Amino acid sequence: MIPLIIGISIVSYAIIILAPGDPAKLLADPEKMTAESYAAMRAELGLDDPGPVRYAKTMASLFTGDLRSFRTQQRVVDAIGERLPTTLALGTLAIVFGLVLGTLIGAVQAIKPYSRLDDLGTLLSLTGFSLPHFWFALMLVMLFGVRLHWLPSSGIRPVTSNSWNPLEMAPYLVMPTVVLGTGLLAYVARFMRSSMLEALAQDYVRTARSKGLREQAVVVRHVLRNSLLPIITIAGFLLPLLIGGAVVVEYVFALPGMGRLAVDAVFARDYPVILTITMFSGIAVMLGNLVADVLYAVADPRIRYG
Amino acid sequence: MADVAAAITVATRPVERARPRRRGLVLRLAGNQRVVVGFAVLLLMFLVAIFAAQLAPYDPNAQTLTARLGPPDASHPFGSDQLGRDVLSRVIWGSRVSLGVGFSSVAITIVIGTAIGVAAGYRGGWVDSALMRFVDVFISIPVFMLLLTIVAIYGSNVPLLITFIGVSAFPGAARIVRAEVLSLMPREFIAASRVIGASPLRIMVRHLLPNLVPIIVVSATLRVGAAILTEAGLSYFGLGVPPPAPTWGGMVADGRTSLDVAWWVSTFPGVALLVVVIATNLVGDGLRDVFDPRRAHLT
């Protein structure tokens, strides 16, 4: 796990350090820049140190929280701290949306396989993961924002407000949640359908049926519970998808989240911010996988690790 | 056991064994609805891309300032954009970038993924551990963000985009190939060829690789859709193929500012994108059914 974090940090850092261009020239005011101020800037940014030393210094300042944005001079940890709640809110809503609707659709499909309803579900999930997020978002904005005026097209709360009032924010989060959640829904529905079909073919289902249980009881008590378990295993796989999607969704809907911060940093070549967000997401994905493994072992006593 | 016997036969007499099997495969593919529908759509799109110059009614970059944001009509079936360019012609030309980048980048993904997967699975031990830790690192970093950064820093043109997108997807491919190699390693035909003194390279190329073809073909097909979406996403951010070259992602972005007055600018390129990606995913799903009938009912 520690080696993995080091690996993630090296990759995140390597991409940036190998970049062409001189950050000192990028930052300094070209009109006032003298040879001395340029040298001072390079020294301040630590650009004259050899690669491994720069890496070690950067990582040290990152973990002590001293790393600052090139652009705003704000501490990167503070910048992320400000943006994280928005992304977490959006991510949680999307996960709930995707999981609830996805398992529901998958379950309905599995109960009546090869029916019209099953075909409809298959088409829905196929479309769901073939949809480009950015386009789907714009289409929703055009329909529900621009034409019908039902929902606000951008931002996370009214411009006059500054609070975390869920009632005020709800209309702003509907479209972003649907866009981000639809991709997840598609994967979950697919996975749920196959997991449930597998469960339906098990011996205990035959036993339950032959002892005269109603079909509803068989499905709800025996099949559903056992087919929900494997869903945990795809949680780790869905997290990177969610983070990538959040970047796009926050950009399109102008939500002040971490994804938006990442895009702004990329365009401004604000390397400390890019580095921290890349590492942060990498570690989040890694932890997500770990939690999924542990949860799975807890939920299914047959699974034992190492 | 039948599989093992067949595999050994393939290893010793490839020519005689291959023919009837291939005929069966074509028939099975032709009998799969998803493959046929998806393949037909893809074929059509490829023809559009190849004959773009003949099919497009206008020059995709010709600006007619009097026809800015013109609605769809007989002369411009998909309308025109904010610079008065014909949207239909741009959608037609845009297919070249999407299909070209999508398919070529997956070729890169497959080559790297197969090489790493086969090496890790065949050698096992520390080689396997080292390679898989390497893969774990890249699987943890969200790909789209990584690509945004790389393309923003290093710039982009078509060959670079193909390379970046292709390389970025390698971890998934490597994992799938490795898992399949691990399941093949204990089989008798591998032991048999070892016993007759085949070199590791020969075993990998002649015995492992042919057995990996189904899983590689399926996962490659399913990756094409994702690669096309990635390219379009980068273009949407203005980080793909530089303008004025028409790309579907870039065209959707062009329509952003005129959603209230000109719905057609963003809508049509997105529909094209959706159709192509659905088609590749249909083919991928169908191929999986055909290659893996035991699990077909589950997917």
Average predicted local confidence, pLDDT of chain A:
85
Number of helices of chain B: 14
Helix content of chain A: over 70%
Rg of chain A, nearest Å: 24 Å
Q: List the helices and strands of chain B in order.
A: HHHHHHHHHHHHHH
Shape of chain A: elongated
Report the sheet with the most strands of chain B, covering strand number, pairing sense and barrel closure.
none
- Secondary structure category of chain B: mainly alpha
Unreliably modeled segments of chain A? none
Low-confidence stretches of chain B: 1-20
What pair of chains forms the biggest interface? A-B, 51 and 47 residues
Integer average pLDDT of chain B: 85
Name the beta content range of chain A.
under 5%
Main beta sheet of chain A: strand number and arrangement?
none
Continuous helix count of chain A: 13
**Strand segment count of chain B:** 0
Q: Nearest-angstrom radius of gyration of chain B?
A: 23 Å
Per DSSP, what share of the residues of chain B sits in E-state strands of 2 or more residues? under 5%
The N- and C-terminal alpha carbons of chain A lie at a distance of 15 Å
Outline the structure in words:
The complex is a heterodimer of chains A (306) and B (299). Chain A has 306 residues and is mainly α. Chain A contains 13 helices and no strands. Chain A has helices spanning 2-17, 23-27, 35-45, 51-64, 76-111, 116-130, 133-147, 166-200, 203-210, 215-228, 231-252, 258-268, 271-299. In chain A, helix 5 packs across helix 8 (166-200) and helix 7 packs across helix 8. The relative contact order of chain A is 0.13. Chain B is mainly alpha-helical and 299 residues long. In chain B, helix 5 (87-123) packs parallel to helix 13 (264-291), helix 7 runs antiparallel to helix 8 and helix 11 (200-236) packs parallel to helix 12 (248-255). The longest helix of chain B has 37 residues, at 87-123. The chains are: A mainly alpha (306), B mainly alpha (299). Chains A and B meet through helix 1, helix 6, helix 7, helix 8 and helix 11 of A and helix 6, helix 7, helix 11, helix 12 and helix 13 of B.
